[in-house]
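Troubleshooting: if your tokenizer reports a length mismatch, compare your output against this known-good record of 929 residues.
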Amino acid sequence: MRCRLAIVSLVLGMMSPVFGASTAERVYLSGKGPSDAVEWDFFCSNGRKSGEWTKIPVPSNWEQQGFGEYNYGHEPAAEKADETGRYKTTFFVPKEWKDKHVRLVFEGSMTQTEVTINGKQAGFPNYGGYLPFRYILDKTKLKYGEENTLEVLVKKKPDNDSLDQAERKADYWVFGGIYRPVYLEVLPREFVNRVAIDAQMDGTFKMDVFPQVQQPTKFREEFKEYVDELTAQIQTLDGENVGKPMLAPIYGSAGRIRFENHIKKPALWSPEHPNLYQVKLTLKHKGKVLSTTIERFGFRTFEHRLGDGLYLNGKRILIKGVNRNVFDPQHGRAIDAERVWREAREIKAMNANLVRSHMPPTMEFMRACDELGLMVITELCNWHDPVIDTPVARNLVYELVTTYQNHPSVIIWANGNENGFNLEVDELYHLYDLQNRPIIHPWAYFEGMNTKHYPDWKEFQLRLSHDKVYLPTEFLHGLYDGGHGAGLQDYWDAIKASPIAAGGVLWCWADAAIARTDRNGMLDTDGNHSADGIVGPNGEKEASYYSIREIWSPIQIAMKTLPDNFSGKIPLENQFYETRLDACSFEWKLVNHTGPFETAKSSVQAEGRVKGPKIKPGKTGELKLRFPDNWQNATALELRAFSSDGREIMQWAWPIRSPEIKGAEAVVRQAEDNLFEIKAGKTTWKFSPETGQLLNCSAEGFGRGPVLYAGTLDGALEFSRIWKTSVVKKGNSVVVRSICEDASFSWTVQPDGSAVLDYDFSAPTNELVYAAIGFDLEETAVASKRWLGQGPDRIWGNRLRGPQFGLWDNEYNDHIVGVNWGETPFKGIFGNVDWMQLNLKSGKSLLVDTDYAAVGVLRPANAEGERDKHGPTSPVHAWWHYPETGGLYLFHKLPGTGTKFANAWELGPQGCPELLKRSIAGKVSFMVR
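Known-good structure output:
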């Protein structure tokens, strides 16, 4: 046999609901994913490696195997590649299958598929790349006891233009090929084809069963009864019976059988407690079991209450959602179960509770959502105009609903996206779905729910002032370190305060960067078209991941610093949907972080684990920790919260004291020939006699400061001052002091070789987008940094949360988020810095001791291109105001960052310009080693 056959017996509970599957065998003709793909014969019509028969792994997208050509969805349809692929393989059919019902199943093939078996057409061509389809194989097509030949023609560009626009025009990479598994489904002659379940929170259970129990007969043949009874029993997943059994007689045959039951106090499915059940269906004839089917489901009630909100199990719930499409950088749309589960777990760990997908997800992802507790919006793929022609759309909606309807995670259907709404198929969702779930038109107002995408702050406030439930199914479009976490705090605070807000769904989960096989595996995002994920193409977590995780954490701690009289009591707010905090646990650690110029690792002074306090959802209280008497000797307190199933929810950290910094203990000497050159041991500091500014020092590449940097929306401000400078010796220290009409600063060079700067500048009267005290720091001089403060990621004025206090380090890089992955960006603003050690290429280190300031290191790079333009490489609105010169800064007004569709100042108060209410004043110490 050419094809490796893996026969797996599965009950329905382990199979796709659309296939119904009874006591069935699956005979895989392909692999289950890229990792175990099976080679078939293959012929590509055009492009790379075309014109000859060769081999290809199935499942796969043929572009990733070196065939055909690449296109991105935004390219004009007439310019897109339209190659076809011909597949061929063989499979053996045992004679015992003559009395079986055999179906050939494709879980996904892009985009039009035509199938022949032993040279005979299997059925009508399938239109649509994202949903499963199947063909019945009977004795007219199969050869029993022999090898059979399967041939498949896959058209990357479908014959139907509306489908081409719907599935290939959208902002996706365009792929071709059989990219999901192919298998034979071998069932008894009498089996349950599919079921539709409606299990409500009060225990009400309804189920429509669609059996196939009448075998083919000849014209005028005498009636024969093959099945006379169908029984159903609700069970736990362990097989323990729950409630009374259900029974229905079958008189010859039946197209549909309705069961109703009631279970007392069922364990409900929710994102916090994803309880699952199964129902076992048995077909019998005269008491003999003919076939058995098992389907998983969950008891839960989801409601859209007009003018009010979304309710799950009778409680109002806010959607913390993220858009995710099926994508693998190495394999395109083909994806392994292991990656699917990893992504689902990481989305859950981000404290999201919902996933929306333009393209229907794999069955394995749905299983993960059911088990982990992620709600799902499932969508008919259709982006913008035109809509899919009704004859094609009707088939796709049927497959969509019947495939996903029994998953308790599915709460909403979406009929297309952003104007891609075929109004003639809306009724079909209601017709097929026994649960009658809400239907949305993403970005429009439909059936009482407003889903308008990408509102700026003013529009967002306007939407929340109306009486229509508002759920933006895409918002804060990320791009190049902008969006997602930037502005989310403002938006989320407004959502929580609004009586009609239903939450929101961020765009999107991952950067869709494909490893181009025509460019030596280069990861290509097609410029800014697809570089917009919370994580990188291989799941690399970017800064916004941690911001979202903290903002959406169901346990909130408002305490930013430990109070002077801290006694171990930490204020908590329970923002869970239904979980009391005594179901959670907390782990604490008292940590001793090493100081600068030290190589030893941090150590744990003491640690413990406690049960959470009895705080109900929506209420506040205190967590009480008991520390040893010497707890104040530690440098930091770390705290982690865990859910009842042991999953980490969030972590926090607070500084306790600063580690000791040991100086050189040298005596200050003034040079005889220059009053403004001061030496302390091996360190030399040189100051300007006109301004008193530091000019340079023994740390090559560092100097000229302090300089006041400030800017408005119109540009950088210029400051012209006349300074009066003096130098005095104060004990073993030397003080360089400068004053002018509205500012003053002084340098104190101390015996240990350090230089301490005290500064006080009157704040400009402008509304500022940034303000900082800066110093020159040559980028070419810097090798790495190590710091005690928030990290490892940088912050922005509208993305303050996420980084945690700790000891961090990283090597110099000039990475652009969304272009480079796998290494935390070196440049930017880092919050709550106690000290930062900048290691220079000269071998020396510059220590910056700031007393918990926001420290900016160099100027972050961004994608090149004209701002506010939608070019393929431009940053569009995802950029930031930042000092143009300098290199090392102490920020007093942090700049914000924008998104793909809005500037920072259009995304809420945190990103807006503001008047500083106090002078720009502070203290910082520098030391060279």
